[in-house]
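ARCHIVE CARD
SHELF: 3
SLOT: left
DATA:
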Amino acid sequence: MVMPSTPYDAKGLLKTAIRDENPVVFFEDKMMYTKLKGRVPTEEYTIPFGVADVKRVGRDITLVATSSMVQVALGAADLLEEAGMSAEVVDPRTLWPLDEKTLIESAKKTSRVIVIDEGYERYGITAEIAAVIAEGAFYNLDAPVKRMGAMHIPIPFSPPLEDATVPTEKSVFEVARKLCGQA
């Protein structure tokens, strides 16, 4: 189960999916088609499944984000840096296999975690990742793992209204400040 967050990752993970002998579910966020540009090398490369990517190293809080929410997490990390806090941003890239080791190591290092996904918080990706981290880093956490996802309403068809229902840089920033005792 693949969820790329950049054009570079999309190409590398798609090449891996094509070569894989097992069925692969490849999720692409439609919002990234028009909003996100990035370098995509012409040479051949693949990205292995089950290997998370630490997009930004930090020390105070871990932001685990999927797909388009990785860009939101990176923006929130910039806001946190301006406020004197350091956020680590981890992109799992694949949900199955899930790189539990990287997620748990990051949580142990920072002791605070927010899991961010565009889908609903309940019964979804954020819940599973939060459970993995809570079980693997329980004694190292200074606060419960926080989940952020879409509001519990039907997602509107209108793009501006749809954007209002999912986490934003500002909302992630505010939750992170509160989790770190800065609000």
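SLOT: right
DATA:
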Amino acid sequence: MKRFLDLADFSREEVLSLLELARRLERQAEPHALTGKLLGLLFFNPSLRTLASMQAAMARLGGNSFVITPGQGSWQLETRRGVVMDGAAAEHVAEAIPVLAGYCDALGIRMFANGTDLAADLADSAFSAIAGLSDRPLINLESAITHPCQALADWKTLDDLAVPRAGRFVLSWAWHPRALPLAVPAAALHMAALRGMEVVVLRPEGFALPPAIMERARRAAASSGGSVTETSERAAALKGAEVIYVKEWGATERYGDAAADAQLRGALRAWCVRNDWFADAPDCHVMHCLPVRRNSAIADEVLDSARSVVQRAAYNRLPAQMAVLHQLLRP
């Protein structure tokens, strides 16, 4: 494995092999596996779990890491091609990425969606352009349209909980005061489809995921014996569900139009997950990638209950990423 950019780049069997490695490293540490190896981490956007878990994973395998946050202790970086650099950015990624790659054995990059051009974000144009600037092993720490490290940890969490491969997995939209990117819902949807689950996307009108994301998930489901459907009917979606994966995202019909998006979501405050959602799914687990806004997306009564597995999923970022690093740097 040379790069870990998208779970869709791997077959189901390859993902299962990576998960087995994660479980082995969780049970039996290899504290010298990556001795002498160095991981460079470039964060264009904020992070808590991704930043901490990547550094911890590298350290637990005996390696080291350094972190660059453009504009905070380093030059602000320009990412656009052909731009006249007479603004705040003092350096272009065309120079910065090769420099950083020369200092380390692998790079991890986090770069959110632009949020204004849906076609460009679906194509992951900005991240792909940066990825092409180095031939070093590369890890996607969340780009415009996917978050493979999160998806791998989520799959491990489902396995840890003994959720049946063919179980019912509901990806549910939740309220947020502003539009959020599509990366995590797209990654979670594809992950569950590739696992072979009965996947239902629950969302209000106007917040359907783009057809390209849905079609890719349907192809993954077809290859793994699963299925993908969508609905705005909460009771029907949740009936018999083993898992509800809660996530906020923007109105794709109003992509890039903050005012129109706000108007559309203004009447949707009731899309906060509460105990009464689980009348027909008494044993349903609740997942969320974090951070989560309490009592906006998920109520305290749910987050603090036994059905919430958000902390377990957050922990699984560590063994999942240890497996990715091990495979990249010590195949």
